[in-house]
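[INFO] parsing input record for Type II secretion system protein J
[DEBUG] input buffer:
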Amino acid sequence: MRTTRYEIRRRGFTLVEVIIATAILAFLMGVLYHVFWRSSSAWEKGDVRTRMYQSIRISLDVMSREIRCALISSGDSHLIFKGDKDALSYISASNKISKKGEFDLCEIGYSLSSHCELLRRIKACLDPSFGQGGATAVLADNVLGLSFLYYDGNTWQERWDSTRGTPHNTTDDALPQAVKITIVAQDEQCLEAPLSLSTIVTLPLSSYKL
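[DEBUG] output buffer:
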């Protein structure tokens, strides 16, 4: 008996045709998934790096604004500027106490905790226990490194104590002319390489003492 074209079409696809079609569909789905995954991963990494950059930048801006207001006094043992390579404490006139723009002195300190947190300590009441007490808040998370350098007008120093003056003049109290702050941070999931940002803060009152 002769088979018509209509009867052939009614039989549907053969097993080989189904397997080939399935393989092609699976290949196309794999390609599309790979493209989507690459795009999504690139977007996520870019978003993580942007948020990490913003966090460090905000921290540097806060620290720069406060350090710029640092001051000392040769006649007042409370007004001190003391820092080493990974921590800094000083007296600043950046403590706003009223909506009229009035400011008062406060003690401010920065350090890095064992949990990779950049800490900011502020004490509104000055007392002999310099470098201790006050309220502590987290400026930034996932910070791998925090470092300070102090410029004396000639070279960068790793430590500074205003009560000991400068390496060239140890008899007078002195502020550094500038402070270089470096922060190294990485996202929590380690999707991106560590990001390092630095800034140099000049101290207008370095040549002026109360």
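[INFO] The beta strands are 81-83, 88-96, 103-112, 118-123, 135-140, 143-151, 156-157, 160-161, 178-185, 195-202.
[INFO] shutting down worker
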